[in-house]
Design goal:
about 775 residues, Penicillin amidase (Acylase) alpha subunit, N-terminal domain, seven-stranded antiparallel beta sheet, alpha+beta, 32 strands
Length: about 775
């Protein structure tokens, strides 16, 4: 019955349709992989059609993302999502979205309004509601132009939040320093500078019931974690074709439908293909007829926490000896099943929204998060500016590196590492984003908000951000690593991801003189672990206590450090490393802090990849309970026993039959798959998966929640600048969100085995790959 209802909602992909709002005829050619190639006679109709198509394929996903970003999920999910909505309203993504839209130029509004008109055109023509609405007994919702634009801007802030997690690291540093001392904390956060005096000035003075930083972290919503990416490009002299070759694979949460939608947009002045987000016009990653580009998250520090001193009644914040009234926003959250809304009184200081205290209630507002005198306020670039639709358009239509950089100069947040190539043989790199210039401090810990000492004095000028053009090495690569050396005069951040993926990419790029699509494909699927090269020699030096440990150590001694899905040694290494982390950290941090720092770390499990190699090489009583190798090895043996017990329970007694992929799996499931009877229906694919967070082929898992890969390559592209029709790519599951569509999960067999589909671009190549044609006419 559900399949029949889902089938009734399938969009037409051939024939003729008349749509009110179109100005001139539009042709849509659908290729065999479900990718629409849109040919319009003007940009209004181009983005109108993009909105129409995305709504026809992904309407439920589109609405959920718009509601998520604006704190309105409770309108459809009720009390289940209310804590999330409260947090979002307190932080003010919805208010920031209104500010961002107020800064848009005319082109941004034209694009947004055309896109929204296309969405509404689908709503008026759809043959039936998507089945998710049938199950939830809801009608689709999409607002008028301005509100639609604001919801889309809020969804972009949602994306930026997942790529900006420094506030989390700041609070963890303070909590761990309070518990273990600053020296131990700096070990757990490598490359941290000397103790900032600001923290001392901000400590103490709060009421006894003030909530700890850990309380705030525990109750904050969990967003997709570990989001990073790889991108690299080689110049023509390092390519088999004599022209540049460019690769990109952004790493995002494993979700169904995919976060990306593949599309080709063509009209006078624009001809671009790649992947788009479900809620916004244009192409985010891809190429046009002149240039290609890929993006990784830069990881710069665009968030600061200010420890505020509030007045006795909590209505003002101290700054330079004067009390400044707080700004209070009354936010009404509609909750399905309730007659009255939930009220959130979101408070802001000069620095931004207060995170650890806000008022809720209708008749009698009540403080639900303690701490009136000492409160954290968040300053975050994304609450002040973002990437406008016109920025994407200018990037999509750039023809040279200079034009591409000019477009990126308007890309405020999230900061990105863009690699570039063009048909003339040039390659380049540009860092983007607004990165604060701080008067004092390095952004790693909360700072006092009651003085001027830690304010921001503007942002690093775009002209001063790192960039490169046609480097002597003939290649460029980024993987969320630190992107400048010590001579760089500005502070971009301190919480870059570990460098191992970037090192491995460069290692593979330099192994051979020239590259082609096949060598890039092997790089995309590479699961060799550089941290394992450092860690395993210490592990295999341990004397085993029994035959089972002896067999496990023998496997590791012969291991090539490749975290292949079929590797038994990889399974032993990963599980043993997790149990070592538990054995070292749990007694010292306590259960809750250990769970957050190690078990469910939001950005990177730096302990595993950066800290563990160091403390294994230099064992001290601080971490092993005794000095020297003997204390270290005693802990390692005990952890190995625990790991082998766990692996035996999961996979049986035969160690040689174990495999990493048996416990490290990737699963793409829709939100309604949480309903047991619907799990199979809303699952798009499941497979054994190799790698981990620091392999080129991303496979991040959370030790506190098991070994399932939760962050994976969300889109892979290899762009051939010698022949754009020879380019290849794929995202994770399929183009359609409709479970009865032939393109619901047809890409999964390609993606999960490291294969690709062609990316036809020129009109003859598109015609050759076309399965159906849809003519849209004004009506």
């Amino acid at each position: 019955m559900l399949r029949e209802r889902a089938r009734a909602a399938l969009p037409a992909v051939q024939g003729e349709l008349r749509l009110a709002g179109l100005r001139e005829p539009v042709q849509v050619l659908w290729d065999r992989w479900g990718v629409p190639h849109v040919y319009a006679q003007g940009t209004h109709d181009l983005f109108f059609t993009q909105g129409y198509i995305l709504a026809s394929e992904r309407l439920f996903q589109l609405e959920v993302m718009l509601r998520f970003g604006s704190g309105r999920l409770s309108e459809i999910f009720g009390d289940l999502s209310l804590p999330l909505d409260r947090f979002i309203r307190a932080v003010g993504w919805n208010r920031a979205a209104r500010r961002l839209c107020a800064q848009w130029d005319d082109l941004s509004w034209e694009m947004s309004e055309a896109f929204a008109a296309g969405v509404r055109a689908w709503l008026s023509h759809m043959p039936a509601k998507p089945v998710e609405y049938e199950i939830l007994q809801l009608d689709p919702y999409f607002p008028d132009d301005r509100e639609a634009a604001e919801l889309a801007a809020a969804a972009s802030i949602l994306m930026a939040w997942g790529l900006s997690t420094n506030w989390d690291a700041e609070l963890l540093r303070v909590q761990i320093a309070d518990q273990l001392g600053w020296e131990a904390m700096t070990t757990l956060f490598p490359e941290l500078g000397p103790e900032p005096g600001a923290v001392v000035a901000g400590k103490g003075g709060g009421p006894a019931n003030r909530r700890s930083a850990l309380d705030l972290l525990r109750e904050a919503p969990r967003f997709p974690k570990g989001q990073g990416s790889n991108n690299w490009v080689v110049a023509g002299r390092r390519s088999a074709t004599g022209r540049p070759l460019l690769a990109n694979d952004p790493h995002l949460f494993a979700q169904l439908p995919s976060i990306w939608y593949e599309i080709h947009l063509s009209a006078p002045g624009i001809d671009v293909r790649g992947v788009a987000l479900p809620f916004s016009p244009g192409v985010i990653i891809g190429h046009n007829d002149r240039i290609a580009w890929g993006i990784t998250n830069l990881g710069g520090d665009t968030q600061d926490l200010y420890l505020e001193r509030l007045s006795e009644d909590g209505t003002a914040a101290l700054h330079n000896g004067a009390w400044e009234p707080l700004t209070v926003h009354r936010e009404e959250v509609a909750v399905r099943g309730r007659s009255d809304p939930e009220v959130v009184e979101a408070r802001e200081t000069r620095h931004g929204p207060i995170l650890d205290s806000f008022l809720i209630g209708v008749g009698a507002p009540t403080v639900v998060e303690g701490g009136i005198r000492e409160t954290y306020a968040l300053r975050w670039v994304a609450l002040e500016d973002g990437a406008k639709p016109s920025t994407v358009y200018r990037m999509n239509t750039a023809a040279t590196f200079e034009e591409f950089r000019a477009a990126l100069s308007e890309w405020a947040t999230p900061g990105g590492n863009f690699v570039y190539a063009d048909v003339d043989g040039n390659i380049g790199y540009q860092a983007t984003g607004w990165h604060p210039i701080r008067r004092r401090g390095d952004g790693t810990v909360p700072v006092p908000g009651w003085t001027e000492d830690h304010e921001w004095d503007g942002y690093v000028p775009f002209e001063e951000l790192p960039f490169a053009y046609n480097p002597d090495e003939g290649f460029l690569a980024t993987a969320n690593n630190r992107i400048h050396d010590d001579s760089y005069p500005f502070l971009i951040g301190k919480d870059f991801l570990p460098p191992f993926r970037a090192r491995r990419v460069v290692e593979l790029l330099t192994e051979t003189q020239t590259h082609d699509v096949e060598s890039f494909r092997r790089m995309h699927t590479d699961t060799v672990s550089l941290p394992a090269r450092e860690i395993v020699p210490h592990l295999v030096s341990v004397e085993p206590t029994d035959d089972r440990q002896k067999e496990a150590l023998a496997l590791l001694s012969e291991w090539d450090f490749d975290l292949r899905a079929d590797s038994a040694a990889a399974a032993i290494y990963e599980v043993w490393s997790c149990r070592i982390g538990d054995a070292i950290l749990l007694p010292r941090l306590g259960e809750e802090l250990h769970r957050h720092y190690f078990g469910l770390r939001q950005w990177t499990n730096s302990f595993h990849y950066q800290v563990l190699p160091h403390i294994l090489a230099y064992p001290t009583a601080t971490w092993f309970g005794g000095e020297g190798v003997k204390a270290r090895d005693d802990l390692l043996r005990k952890a190995l026993g625990t790991a082998l017990d766990e692996l035996t329970t999961a996979m049986g007694e035969d160690i040689s039959a174990w495999s990493w992929g048996a416990i490290h799996r990737v699963r793409f499931a829709g939100q309604l798959a949480r309903i047991p009877d619907l799990a199979e229906l809303f699952t798009g694919g499941e497979a054994a998966w190799g790698g981990d967070e620091q392999t080129v082929c991303q496979g991040m898992y959370e030790p506190g929640a098991g070994y399932d890969a939760v962050v994976v390559p969300s889109w892979r592209q290899i762009i051939d600048l010698s022949d754009l029709d020879a380019s290849v790519g794929t995202h994770t599951v399929g183009q359609s969100g409709n479970l009865t569509s032939p393109h619901f999960k047809d890409l999964f067999p390609l993606w999960s085995t490291g294969q690709y589909h062609p990316l036809p671009f020129t009109r003859p190549a598109v015609e050759a790959a076309t399965d159906s044609r849809l003519d849209l006419l004004p009506g």
